[in-house]
Write a sequence for this structure.
């Protein structure tokens, strides 16, 4: 893939990418009881990496990912499945959502196995979208 | 603790291969080991599901504690259990075979996760009791199969793309039918729908779309055009899985939907039409197998022909229901798996699979030839093989209900099958120069082919169990 | 609104089928995109198009107060969209590879590989 020579794009990417990533995490956590969730958040993070690939080239993007995109898919899948296992151990049906609520001051923090599942989905989607970007960029 | 009490065995049948697949992506170096362990564990889990069915009868499991009509449910019953066992028993030798077959790391890294994912998807398909979930499994099944076909390298890409496009069309038909069913009845659970379904034009349209979609995926003549290039071009273990198991999955689904959901709409005319297509498939497939210039192509066309038998068997569902079709599916799965594995061995040894030059490779690998012959016996339907049992059941059902044409087609097609099986076996006894091996065939590759071939024969003695399981736990 | 969407679905199906019947693989792929969108739209319309009535149960009640929009089709559509996204992305990569190899996008050139 041709590395973009536009200084504007490169500089803007440096600013926008962290914002996109933070926003994707916000979307992931928000998915609890409002629109959002692992899939959309993962796509958003994937977009951030795709933007980086356009600005700095796919090799730089692959370096930034640190692991092979395949590893993201496998790891995410494992995390998502593990999110279903606690329910099994408690004798509930597989993937039943278990919730714990605790308070920091006045703020109720709700943790759940659903969140674990969502994090897994987030990672899988990130892995899939960066695989697609890398594969399409290959040999063109 | 009574292990069989836990309803989780059913879930594990899906989760265990999926987990193993995830691990295989994560640690590609241990792909082989993870694949083998995953295969053995899946077999054990299917055993657990059997115990559960034996002690508690058919079960429904609500995933995530969401009940129908909102949630997704799994259902374990007799036919589903049979298919789980078939998948597990055929997959195990194929896994052993694949361990030695793939040589480049590139192929290994891709094969193991995809293969385990495919297995998990098949199990999910048999266990799902929800139309939309079935759509997802179908789509996933063809998707993973296409990627596996493309593993064979650049030459297989063309076959893969035809496969993908045809199967996408099939899935679209299925999805549209699901949408229509939901629009008409407001639910997706098969059992709940079965109580509600009426013979309205809308349901008829959904039935038509769903059936055509599934027939495209199960490659019934004349919708088979994508199958021979894909099955002949894929790597040998992949060909074995696709021919033995994947095309059967959509046939199983067709049968399930016709017998439960759409039973008020499935008329004699409809089943007769499928039967006629089946006869067409037998004739056309056998003919093409007789004039195929490559061994794997011959075996692939033989699949087209044998799928025609399932079409024929479907004309008998009003008198015999599940049993003959399922027996046939299982018998063919073992035989065709063995055939493709053996063909893969000849191809590996000779470096090609051209019929004209294959005979030296056949002479060099007697164990594989034996496996091929055993599978051939089952395909032709000679006693005491599984194929004989299946044909016997079909024949007696056809004669009991006075359908002479079907009986005639069954007997006649055995001869056609014999012709193309002997076309291969005859080459094993031709005199000629010794083979200069191009590639190495490990003993495990030969023995796993033989294992499947023996299974195809031994199945002939398992008729009682099949009858019992199906009679005791119908859908 | 529903009749309008029915017409849209019809239009999508017609154009999708037309595209599928073309010879170019890329156009075939576009046709498949249109068809899968049409199918998704059908699922979406089966929910009934109602504005501003989310399927929420108010506190203290055990059932929604009004007739609400059916939430299930939306979940189904979302899943179907995700699946078609994945499959089409893969198909695109595959078509791209095929194009590199055969140097053509005519579907008839793919059939000569049976030997």
């Amino acid at each position: 893939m041709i590395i973009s020579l536009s200084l504007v794009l490169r500089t803007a990417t440096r600013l926008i990418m962290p914002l996109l990533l933070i926003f994707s995490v916000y979307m992931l956590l928000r998915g609890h009881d409002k629109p959002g969730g692992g899939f959309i958040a993962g796509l958003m993070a994937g977009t951030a990496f795709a933007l980086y690939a356009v600005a700095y080239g796919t090799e730089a993007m692959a370096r930034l990912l640190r692991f092979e995109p395949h590893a993201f898919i496998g790891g995410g899948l494992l995390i998502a499945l593990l999110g279903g296992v606690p329910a099994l151990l408690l004798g509930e049906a597989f993937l039943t959502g278990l919730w714990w609520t605790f308070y920091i001051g006045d703020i109720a923090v709700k943790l759940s196995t659903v969140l674990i599942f969502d994090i897994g989905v987030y990672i899988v989607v990130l892995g899939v979208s960066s695989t697609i970007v890398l594969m399409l960029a290959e040999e063109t | 603790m009574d292990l069989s009490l836990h309803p989780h065995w059913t879930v594990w049948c899906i989760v265990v291969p999926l987990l193993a697949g995830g691990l295989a992506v994560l640690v590609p170096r241990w792909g082989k080991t993870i694949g083998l362990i995953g295969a053995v564990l899946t077999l054990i889990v299917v055993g657990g599901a059997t115990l559960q069915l034996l002690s508690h009868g058919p079960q429904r499991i609500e995933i995530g504690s969401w009940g129908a009509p909102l949630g997704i449910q799994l259902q374990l019953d007799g036919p589903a259990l049979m298919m789980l066992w078939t998948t597990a028993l055929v997959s195990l030798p194929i896994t052993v075979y694949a361990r030695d077959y793939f040589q480049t790391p590139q192929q290994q890294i891709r094969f193991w996760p995809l293969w385990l994912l495919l297995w998990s998807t098949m199990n999910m398909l048999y266990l799902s009791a929800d139309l939309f979930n079935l759509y997802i499994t179908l789509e996933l099944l063809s998707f993973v199969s296409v990627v596996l076909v493309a593993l064979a390298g650049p030459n297989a890409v063309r076959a893969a793309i035809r496969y993908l496009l045809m199967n996408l069309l099939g899935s679209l038909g299925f999805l549209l039918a699901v949408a229509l069913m939901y629009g008409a009845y407001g639910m997706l659970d098969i059992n709940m729908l079965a109580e509600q379904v009426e013979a309205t034009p809308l349901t008829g349209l959904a039935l038509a779309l769903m059936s055509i979609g599934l027939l495209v995926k199960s490659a019934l003549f004349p919708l088979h055009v994508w199958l021979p290039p894909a099955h002949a071009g894929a790597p040998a273990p992949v060909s074995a899985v696709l021919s033995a198991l994947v095309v059967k999955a959509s046939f199983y689904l067709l049968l399930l939907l016709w017998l439960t959901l759409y039973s008020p709409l499935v008329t004699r005319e409809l089943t007769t039409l499928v039967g006629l297509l089946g006869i067409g498939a037998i004739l056309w497939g056998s003919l093409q197998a007789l004039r195929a210039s490559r061994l794997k192509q011959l075996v692939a066309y033989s699949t087209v022909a044998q799928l025609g038998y399932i079409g024929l068997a479907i004309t008998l569902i009003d008198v015999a229901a599940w049993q003959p079709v399922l027996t046939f599916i299982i018998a063919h799965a073992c035989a065709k798996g063995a055939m493709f594995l053996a063909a893969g061995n000849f191809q590996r040894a000779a470096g090609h699979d051209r019929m004209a030059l294959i005979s030296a490779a056949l002479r060099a690998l007697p164990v594989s030839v034996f496996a091929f012959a055993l599978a051939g016996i089952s395909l032709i339907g000679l006693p005491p093989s599984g194929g004989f049992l299946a044909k016997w059941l079909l024949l007696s059902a056809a004669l009991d209900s006075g359908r002479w044409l079907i009986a005639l087609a069954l007997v006649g097609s055995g001869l056609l099958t014999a012709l193309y099986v002997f076309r291969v076996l005859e080459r094993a006894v031709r005199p000629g120069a010794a083979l200069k091996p191009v590639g190495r065939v490990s003993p495990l590759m030969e023995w796993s082919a033989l294992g499947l071939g023996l299974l195809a024969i031994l199945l002939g003695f398992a008729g009682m169990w099949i009858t019992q399981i199906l009679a005791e736990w119908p859908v | 609104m529903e009749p309008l969407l029915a017409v849209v679905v019809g239009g999508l199906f017609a154009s999708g089928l037309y595209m599928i019947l073309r010879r170019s693989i890329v156009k075939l792929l576009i046709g498949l995109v249109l068809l899968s969108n049409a199918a998704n739209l059908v699922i979406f319309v089966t929910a009934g198009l109602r504005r501003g009535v989310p399927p929420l149960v108010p506190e203290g009640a055990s059932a929604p107060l009004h007739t609400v929009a059916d939430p299930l089709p939306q979940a189904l559509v979302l899943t179907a969209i995700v699946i078609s996204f994945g499959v089409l992305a893969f198909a695109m990569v595959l078509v791209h590879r095929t194009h590199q190899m055969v140097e053509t996008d005519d579907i008839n050139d793919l059939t000569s590989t049976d030997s």
